[in-house]
Amino acid sequence: MQNDLIDLHTHSTCSDGSDAPGQLIRLAAQAGARAIALTDHDTIDGLAEARQAAAREGIEFINGIEVSAEYSPGTMHILGYYIDPQSETLAAQLEMLLNARDRRNPEIASRLQSLGVEIDYSEVEEIAGGEVVGRPHFARLLLQKGYVESIQNAFDRYLAKGAAAYVEKARLVPQDAIDLIHKAGGAAVLAHPYQLKCKSQEEADAVFDQLAALGLDGVEAVYSRHSPQDRERYASMATSRGMIVTGGSDYHGTYKPDIRLVTGKGDLSVSYSLLDGIKERARAAAISRRSGD
Ligand code: AMP
Ligand code: ZN
Ligand code: FE
Ligand code: FE
What is the pLDDT of residues 136-175, one digit of tens each? Predict the structure, then answer.
């Protein structure tokens, strides 16, 4: 029987994962994945290499991306699937987001310095090794220098929202994040809804209502850090609003050592059949893009 498992949320060295795109695809093939999406933060630079590797390995590849949206007090990330890497709108917005990171990151470095941490921003850039520098790279440096015991510890003590060295970054408002993905011909999906940190079911319902009204296509209900109950709850909150259900691990290699590709924390199971709905939504976005809606 052909393996039916897929992973629709992964990060490579092009953002804050530890495996190069081709290596990530080889690992996915070894893990028995039938299809995989690469969803780096704010960049599509890894897609070409990943696509070539997927062709060699005989697995299906989906162009993806993850962008951050303005939201408080929790975190809102929007995933895009089947985006067109040639989209000029996408290129322009991604450049803007990278510029915002270039302003934010040195500020994080100087906050850390003022907290007594001896680091130079160039060391962080060296660890990142690419154009997208993110907080996990700071966390890795803090770990290497012995300031913290783990990546998670670095977030808890210094880098998490609200912690001492946290600096806000410019983000798209949710409507713009969703529109951007649609303009690039892709389907827009809310990543890891637990990170919205909603305090009640009413609050979560209200956010889902708003996102559905903005044209969100789907919700990543099947996620490594969701309990089985949360997976069911988010799935029914999505489908009752006409949105599709998706899933993924959010694999970052050694930056999230407890998360495995495809299997997450061991119990993740994202079925290939979920791709049907995503393909349908992306087709609709591509058609309305061509007709200039
Ligand atoms: P950035 O895009 O630079 O804001 O960094 C986002 C990355 O940091 C994502 O990969 C998140 O998984 C990770 N991250 C954000 N907040 C936390 C946290 N509180 N604990 C662990 N990782 C986090
Ligand atoms: Zn990340
Ligand atoms: Fe995310
Ligand atoms: Fe992610």
Answer: 999 999 999 999 999 999 999 999 999 999 999 999 999 9
Half-sphere exposure of 6 (CA within 13 A, CB side): 22
What Cα–Cα distance (Å) separates residue 42 from each residue in 15, 78, 140, 230, 292?
8, 11, 20, 27, 25
Which residues are placed with Cβ below 5 angstroms of ligand 2, an ion?
11, 16
Closest CA to 109 of 171, 159, 144: 159
Q: Are the C-beta atoms of 188 and 177 separated by less than 8 Å?
A: yes
Q: Which of 62, 65, 76 is nearest to 270 (CA)?
A: 62
In angstroms and rounded to an integer, the radius of gyration of the C-alpha atoms of the chain is: 18
* C-alpha–C-alpha distance, residues 226 and 244, integer Å: 17
Mutation probe of ligand 1 site: the residue of 138, 159, 161 with most atoms within 8 A of C-beta: 159
Q: Determine the straight-line distance between the first and last CA of the chain, rounded to whole angstroms.
A: 43
Q: Is 121 in the pocket of ligand 1 (CB under 6 A)?
A: no
Q: How far apart are CA 50 and CA 150, in angstroms?
A: 29
Q: Residue 129: left if φ>0, alpha if ψ -120 to 50, beta else—which one?
A: left
Model confidence pLDDT, tens digit, residues 24-76: 999 999 999 999 999 999 999 999 999 999 999 999 999 999 999 999 999 99
> What CA–CA distance (Å, rounded) separates 106 from 102?
7
Residues in the chain: 293
